[in-house]
Amino acid sequence: MLNKIHHTAIICSDYQKSKKFYTEVLGLAIIREVYRENRQSYKLDLALNGTYVIELFSFPNPPQRVSRPEAAGLRHLAFEVDDLEKIIEHLQKFKIEVEPIRIDEHTEKRFTFIADPDNLPIEFYEE
């Protein structure tokens, strides 16, 4: 019935800051950017390696969402990487705090987390 995940939608509090983070820091490509006058909202469609993955929205004064400790709901966004050290080095150039590397107890794969500009947890999982 299902084919794949189509995209993940993220509502940000500072559109320009989040746009810069997702495009310049994480390197996602802009597919389309639309300003919706009637909603006073931007909608930015972003791709990873040519595949549409994120809708980034802005709305006036969005309510804060509990992210930590472990609140019910969507936990985090995860990206697969080939080289964890390489992505950590890249993130540190942008002064982004990176959590210590952990080991998945079931797969023995390495992973780490950062936070986006709105404190959404983002995981990098090494394959």
From TrEMBL:
Gene3D superfamilies named in the record: 2,3-Dihydroxybiphenyl 1,2-Dioxygenase, domain 1
CDD domains: VOC_Bs_YwkD_like
Superkingdom of the source species: Bacteria
Domain VOC: from-to ranges: 4-127
GO molecular function: metal ion binding
Keyword Calcium among UniProt keywords: no
Keyword Lipid metabolism: no
Keyword entries, A-Z: Metal-binding
Name of the protein in question: VOC family protein
Organism: Flavobacterium franklandianum
